[in-house]
Amino acid sequence: MSSLIDSRFQKVNTEGQGGFSIADLYFDTNLERHVIIKKLQEFSEVDRLLDEIEALQKGKSKHLVQIYDIIFDEDRPVAIVEEYLPGNDLLNFNHTPSDTQIYLKVLYQLAKGLSDIHECEIVHRDFKPNNVKFDSEKILKIFDFGLAKNEIPASTVGQIGTPGFMAPELFWSPPVIDRPVDCYSFGCTAYYLVSKKPPQCSLSMPPVAKQSSESINNYINIDNNELLSLIDQCLEIDPSNRPTMKEIYESLKKELLYGKYKATLTFDGKTLELNEIDSGVKVSGGNNDSAVIRYDGYNFIATEVNGNVYVNNTKIDTNFYFCGSAVITLGHPDLKAFRRYITFDISNPEVVL
């Protein structure tokens, strides 16, 4: 294999050795950049290499390491050329109470990456702090898909993974592999990043139920019970009781964008902006049709709804949550041209990493 590599790649050093492969740092003279080449140690492990190739080709996410090329030897894949991630992994992530925003941004990127690969029908199966690294732009990327499954749900023979980060169902007979496996590992990682160890319940083999006294709330100080509860639910014994990674990602995004949304109301040639936390604006028409729209920092909510108030042609009641931009209509449909129409636009800010 060395002749296949030496003609294009210049070796820099050895990065590490895993269960089935050796990872070396090379300079790719074609791409003119540093890359990682993962080479099989034994050809009997070719199925794991094929799983990793399929996962990396199938997965689409900015938080997933890129695959550049595949090296063949007599029509057999023997190595893969991957993006080089020069940053640190998360094994030595340092968290202090004042760094809660940094911690949440890390979790946000991990949840987004796992959510993205789950959308592509991929389960990582060995997600943990040292299988994530920062790239040159300080973006976290998930790598090491040697245990990944690309058709889910799936089963396998024997328990494979990292103790302390393995979901209970991986110890079943036969083990069951589906998206909740990564959710459990994410929960363990969330605990590890703030305590330097996985949660106590995950250290048993198989893992046991989490004690009520064991909570992520013991380590971070945020006033968002929904998010705290979702992280703790990742450690549920029953996979069906765990949240999806998309739910976790969206909750983290909402927390990181607290107070950063803006709503614009346009009516009668006038424009009003609603962006101050705990502020509100009253909209009204004839016949006492009215509502007060408030912003709590997370959501825009129609409160004090009276009479005929419609959002996108659906009549609403008090405590209606706006999911996005909409048209608010005041007045009964029989009023026709005498109804009042208000366009309601919500900004779409992005999390700054």
TrEMBL record:
Gene3D superfamilies: Transferase(Phosphotransferase) domain 1 (1.10.510.10). GO terms for cellular component: cytoplasm. One of its GO terms (molecular function) is protein serine/threonine kinase activity. The keyword Kinase applies. Transmembrane segments: none annotated. Pfam families: Pkinase. The keyword Transferase applies. This is Serine/threonine protein kinase. Residues 9-257 form the Protein kinase domain.
